[in-house]
Amino acid sequence: MLKSLQGKTVIVTGASRGIGKGIALRFGEAGLNVVVVSRSQGDADKVAAEIGPNASGFAADVSTEEGCKAMVEAAVTRYGGVDVLCVNAGIFPAAKLGEMTAGDFDHVISTNLKSTFLGISAVLPAMTRAGSGRIIITSSITGPITGYPGWAHYGASKAGQLGFMRTAAIELAPKNITVNAVMPGNIMTEGLEGNGPEYIAAMEASVPLRRLGTPADIANAALFFASEEAAYITGQSIVVDGGQILPESLGALEAMG
Ligand SMILES: NC(=O)c1ccc[n+]([C@@H]2O[C@H](COP(=O)([O-])OP(=O)(O)OC[C@H]3O[C@@H](n4cnc5c(N)ncnc54)[C@H](OP(=O)(O)O)[C@@H]3O)[C@@H](O)[C@H]2O)c1
């Protein structure tokens, strides 16, 4: 049983659906004040209403400096500070090399990677004032460990987040701020559903635990990184993928029976 985080405040970006929503619900259940961030105020408000009176929505585009600063200001005004930042918002449009434009590349890098830098930069003054903080990044297995046709830009953004994290963790350690990452495998979200039923079925078949993950699976790992019990862990990442990266070949999966 982890010690209570009741009364602390978390900002979750990309929390109007999918993994971010799962994280927001889980942290809300654990008694934290939750700032639910997405570009749509209406969608963010809906998730906040689901969580309860300890949550509120905020509309921000996290690929912009103004958006990130505004979401932190809102958390400080509403709840008095920010204890935890979950940098989760991300997009994964597919485009193979030869078709991928410079604009596609910039869009993915700016939404997934630049937003990591901007969000962390924006929250630093509040966490520095408080003398502590927890930052949890939603990376991926795609990029840091694996590849998938169409996602060269996405993989670069997700591997980039981990590269960024390692130096950020060293720089922020003297301020008692930890920075860690969760690396999801294939998690059943609205975003993933967009890849179609064939993709989903193929993915299920390639996971040793024989199911896709749920947003709650990722949220539990994020909650651990936010806990007092994880105070001595920084600059680390945890793979939550049902064993997806383990089989060395299709033969290994078939041999499971
Ligand atoms: N699903 C998976 O299998 C999987 C696997 C590995 C890693 N991940 C990572 O997990 C994270 C969430 O993925 P998901 O599957 O939950 O995606 P999703 O269902 O498509 O949800 C994405 C969330 O991000 C928000 N968002 C997108 N662009 C934004 C922006 N510029 N500013 C603010 N919010 C923005 C969306 O809300 P609005 O559109 O309203 O802004 C939405 O709340 C991503 O970082 C992704 O790379 C997912």
Helix content: 40-55%
Helix and strand sequence? EHEHEHEHEHEHHHEH
Give the count of helical stretches.
9
CATH architecture label name = 3-Layer(aba) Sandwich
The end-to-end distance, rounded to whole angstroms, is: 36 Å
Q: How would you sum up the global shape? A: globular
Biggest sheet record = 7 strands, parallel
Protein name: 3-oxoacyl-[acyl-carrier protein] reductase
InterPro entries: NAD(P)-bd_dom_sf, SDR_fam
GO biological process, one term: fatty acid elongation
Pfam family, one: adh_short_C2
Describe this structure as you would to a colleague.
By secondary structure, the protein is α/β, with parallel strands linked by helices. It has one domain: Rossmann fold (3-Layer(aba) Sandwich). It is 46% helix and 15% strand. The protein has helices at 18-29, 41-51, 65-79, 102-130, 152-172, 190-193, 197-205, 215-226, 250-254, and strands at residues 9-13, 33-38, 55-59, 84-87, 133-138, 177-184, 237-240. It has a seven-stranded parallel sheet, sandwiched between helices. α2 (41-51) links the parallel β2 (33-38) and β3. The longest helix has 29 residues, at 102-130. It is globular and about 55 Å long. The mean pLDDT is 97. NADP nicotinamide-adenine-dinucleotide phosphate binds next to α1, α4 and α6.
What's the short story on this structure?
The protein is an alpha/beta fold and 257 residues long. It has nine helices and seven strands, in the order βαβαβαβαβαβαααβα.
